[in-house]
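Assemble and predict.
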Amino acid sequence: MTELRRVVVSSLTLGGAVGIFALSFGVASVSAGASVWQTCALSLFVFTGASQFSAMSVVGAGGSMVAAYGGAVLLAVRNLVYGLALSSSAKSMAGNLPSRLFAAHFVIDETTALALAESSPRFRKIAFWTTGIGLFTFWNLGTLIGALAGSAIDPQKFGLDIAFPAAFIVMLVPHLRSKLGRQAAALGGVLCLVSISFLPVGVPILLAATAVLVGVRNDQ
Amino acid sequence: MISEAPTNLWLMIVALAVSAYLLKMFGLVVLGSRQLPKVFDRCLGLIPAALLSALVLKDTFSVGQSLVVDARVVGFAVAVIAAWRRAPLIVVVVLAAGATAFLRAI
């Protein structure tokens, strides 16, 4: 029982923290020009934070929809890797094919981390679903509240145009722990800055993705 | 702020929702427990580092296609310090936005 409580409490704590994150997404997304409905649709149906932030950041800067889509999809590729990591437990977590297809929507950073932290199939299942459903609820509530608040105020006056980069910085920090991560971040940043003035808005973000090739060189 | 019609934004949202779902679903349901080659795995793992860094710089130092230095730089600096000290996201955003708004107001 105490074990169960531990799993549920850590899932819900994370959900609450993510709700705050979603508030800033809601505010930033409407500041970038999306409607409240469009902002909520992103959180309901895309449901992977970094991609949502990235898409609206490019749109807000006046970039094309194709560029916005491209960067966001690249950021979503890691969910494929998470799915692979969880797939050996897929049957014990979700049972038959329809429930596995449903479970797929919840394969994101947090659910993967908390599910894989549990070694027993039973707790892995509980961790996946409480984190997934809890996060989904808080993420969408936070988005709605943020979007409503954001459309009621003047974003520039409150310095809210900094909400995107501030959120990106927070998401970036854990990736700077490894040397390869720092190299990819440095190269990606440089590629973006030098190409901003001559590439269409949003495309420098796609160019920055080539910085992942630093991972090829260090093949031991 | 949006240079294209809102319909295009809706199309992008639908395309992104479908793609994001397919990526999640492919890993969990279709590919199964297949191992990716190490190099591939490592490069995919570096996508967030490369893209997030580019997004931070774009959002701080550019307006459209021009590089600019304005009040956002102060917010950026505050956010970097706060994030480095492991402040929670909401604190980072509020401090950064506050610093930027303050500089614009004076």
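Chain B touches chain A through 81 residues (CB under 8 Å).
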